[in-house]
Structure formats: structure tokens, C-alpha cells
Amino acid sequence: MTPIIAMLIPAIVASFGGVLAIFWNPSHNARSLIQHFAAGVVLAALAVEVLPELGREHAPAWVLIGSFAVGGILMYLMKLWSISLESKESNSGSNTFNYGLIAATFIDVAVDGFIIGAGFAAGGNTGLVLALGLSVELLFLGLALVSDTIKGWRVLVMTLLLAGVVLTCTLLGNYLLAGASTSVISAILAFGVAALLYLVTDELLIEAHVVEEKPSSTLWLFAGFLVFWSIQLFSVA
What we know:
mainly alpha, 9 helices, 0% strand
């Protein structure tokens, strides 16, 4: 698979998620299971490819630690900003778009795209692994955006815009980081580790636990990890 085709995967999957959201509105329990599965896939992408790749690059420890710390702080600030926007809209009582959620989603997708681009710039399977792992998140992003004010064709338009953002940022990240030093690429990937951990712990799993969790939910998290790990193992066999 050529890199450009691999870069298109997240955008195509995100667009398909928008189409899926028009015809399918899963129950809260079904969404919880899906989010557990997606969390397992993202964790596998980190454990199987990204963290080992950082170890292979032998970048200075202070670069990795500093970049991860910056990523964690920025994710925390984005969370506070999103909560502030949502609180203002809730207090206004108007039945309008949830601009806090939409803004946070676009920023999250832009960061994801740039991280994928950094993965391709790093070489090896890192870019492809990140593209596949984050595609699971993007597939169900349209379902997560469905609300009283965003549904039907509006969800499709929103996901198409998100697909454009993730593709643009992937290409931009790959272009800007092509030929960059090991330290620079490792710093971006370390920042990406923080962003992806935020995605798993503060978005996917928290949202999944809004409803009463069933014991089988944990199996779906392990299943997501195992499926992605199996794909990676067979791809290098």
C-alpha cells in the first residue's frame, strides 16, 4: 500500500461514518460497547507501534518527557475550554449547536491528522498503524455528534468537513516533517501519545461509562486491542 493511499484511509472512514449516522442510531449500550472497542484499538496502536518506535529512535529522554508533558497540559486546557463553552450554552437554554463539542472535535481531529502525518514521516509501519487505529475513532465520530440539532444531512456535512481536516493535517504533517531530525519527529509522536491517552481516558471511556456498564464491556476493550495487535503481528510475519 502506497503512503498516499494509506493517508486517505482515515478521511474515507470518517466520511463513511457520516453516512452510517444517517441510517443507524445505536442505543446507548451499543455506543458504550463501540467506544470500549475503539479504546482498545487506540491503546493497541500506542503499545504495539508508537511507544516501541519512540524507543527505536533513541531520541533524548528530555525531549520525549517534555513533549509528553506539553501534550498533556494542552489536552487539559482544551478540556477546560470545551467545558466552559458547553456550560455557557447550557446556561443560555437555547436549542442551538453545541459549539463547544464541535470546536473540540475539530481540534482533536486536526491533532490526530498531524500525528498520523508524523507517523508517516517517521517511516516504517508507524503511519499506517496510526491511520488504522484512529480510523476506528473516526468511523463512529458521526454517531457521537448526533443530537437534536445535528442529525440527518447535517451530520454527513459535519463528518465530510472533519474528513477534509484530518486529510489536510495528515498531508501537512507529512510534508513539514519529511526529512526532519529524529528528535523533532519523536517529540511530535510523544505529544501524540499524550493526545491519544486523553482520547481514550477522557473521551471514549468516560462517555462509555455514562450508561450502566455491563460486564461484557471489558471484553470489548480487550477485543479491540487483540484485533489490532493481531493485524500488526500478521503484517510483519
